Each structure stands twice: as structure tokens, then as C-alpha cells.
Amino acid sequence: MNVVAFPPRARPHVVIESGRCTKSSDGTLIGRWVYMVDFIDEDGSVLHDYVGTDYTKAGRAAIEWARDYGCKIFDRSEEESGR
Question: pTM for the whole thing?
Fold first, then answer.
């Protein structure tokens, strides 16, 4: 009998990250400092929820995911340097 070991499932979580936008379907974001909110499920699939310039809106989006799924938020974002 062959047994296939599957990696343990990760816990769902939300990640807030930030950086300079270099390409986007929304041309108004290119060159600007943006915040991104991603929901990562048990299988490691990523759902991009928010991309924008407002940290407060990113935080609200992350809190909604965390509340709905009972998961943790990992805030890896940084403020734009020089601000």
C-alpha cells in the first residue's frame, strides 16, 4: 500500500503589506505607496482583497476578514520612507 503524506494545513490568516506600485490595471496607483490586504486560506490560496493608498481602509478590510474567519492579522506594512 502506498501512503501519500500531505503537509499539515495552515491556519487561515490575513496579511497587510505595503510597497510602491509599479504596475496596475488602475493607472492612478502606479508610482504611489499602496497597502495590500490578502486572505490566505487553509490550502495556501490567496485572495487579494484590498489594494489602495489608505492604511485605514486596509486595516478595516483586514479586520473584517479576521472577524469573519476567526483568524489572525499579520501587519507587515511599512510607512513610505521619507514621510
Answer: 0.82
